[in-house]
Amino acid sequence: MADSGFPRELSWGCTVQGLLGMASTVTANSVGTQSGLISKPSHDIASYSGLKAAASISFESRSSFLGQNASLRSSIAPRIVPKAKSGSQISPEASYKVAVLGAAGGIGQPLGLLIKMSPLVSALHLYDIANVKGVAADLSHCNTPSQVLDFTGPSELANCLKGVDIVVIPAGVPRKPGMTRDDLFNINASIVKTLVEAVADNCPEAFIHIISNPVNSTVPIAAEVLKQKGVYNPKKLFGVTTLDVVRANTFVAQKKNLKLIDVDVPVVGGHAGITILPLLSKTRPSVTFTNEETEELTKRIQNAGTEVVEAKAGAGSATLSMAYAAARFVESSLRALAGDPDVYECTFVQSELTELPFFASRVKLGKNGVESIISADLEGVTEYEAKALEALKPELKASIEKGIEFVHKQQAAATSP
């Protein structure tokens, strides 16, 4: 691929500073203050981090714009993670194709921009039913290496998906004031079903990231569609719940006056209302909460989407923070595909961690998707968290079953005379 004139190795934090006209080496403090995302200059995977950094950052670094949480890594590495072999690297030639389905929407546009900034992406395919050509033209002017291609309408969907490594699906209608995630179901369920059918036909080996709400139902829908097509791989289907983690980290850091880049709060369960369960007792660095603080933070994290919907007063939902969180999960997946042996994220996946068939928890990602589900987070939880965990199960179970039932009804309708 021809050189774009843009330093191929630029990390996201460095990119932002470069656009602001900063010098070619910036201090960790200056980047941390303005973006909260810092990349090390080392090629060694052990230091391949977007959240903690050495004293300075070179524009020659070959790291990704969003990295692993170093405090998270240190919290579970002693028990779970084998030490990376010395000299392990992400290949400098690593490059992948990413498709965004719903790329002209409120989440799709900023998500496309953030993915365009990743040095691990060689091609960015943007699909929507309308208005995507302008989005692609706009993004194509950004002097980062990835090629941007646009695809409009069902007739171009197959071409969009051919050869793609990661498919991200934010397509669907947004929440409006007074609308619950369940209200979105009938519209978004049909959209997700149709798009996942195309994924099954054209890139069945791809990682599939489901953003379209209600995630508690749309992920089971995707699973059933893939099963019908005979290509279901539970290790490669993900419900993107990263925004819950991002919010939990942000709110806890603010509440406890902590450095945000050091904070990691695992969030388990599902991705709606009370099914969102932040395990505040597992916060890193270790911090104590009063009962009142625990209840206040838990409820705010659970209702944060509504907080944004109400603040926008009918003008939309949480699109920017969702795009940021989705880009973080895309980048983690890219790093896993590229050989980073130390990638962990919370995500809604098929799971045996509880009696429910799907459950959000921390997982280890690898080249083939989910390598392991981390059960340690559910060990030794507080009484409050244990009760909340039991309380969320009936609602989450109902949402999962609703998604499965939707696909079965559609199949029955299609085969009936």
UniProtKB/TrEMBL annotation:
| Stretches assigned to the Lactate/malate dehydrogenase N-terminal domain | 97-239
Domain of life the protein comes from:
Eukaryota
Signal peptide positions (record): none
Annotated Lactate/malate dehydrogenase C-terminal domain ranges read: 241-407
Catalytic function, reaction form = (S)-malate + NAD(+) = oxaloacetate + NADH + H(+)
Per the UniProt entry, the Enzyme Commission number(s) are 1.1.1.37
A single Gene Ontology CC term: mitochondrion
An example Gene Ontology molecular-function term: L-malate dehydrogenase (NAD+) activity
Fetch the SUPFAM superfamilies from UniProt. Answer: LDH C-terminal domain-like, NAD(P)-binding Rossmann-fold domains
One GO term of the biological process aspect:
malate metabolic process
Keywords from UniProt, A to Z, are: NAD, Oxidoreductase, Tricarboxylic acid cycle
Family classification? Belongs to the LDH/MDH superfamily. MDH type 1 family.
Subunit comment: Homodimer.
The name on file for this protein is malate dehydrogenase
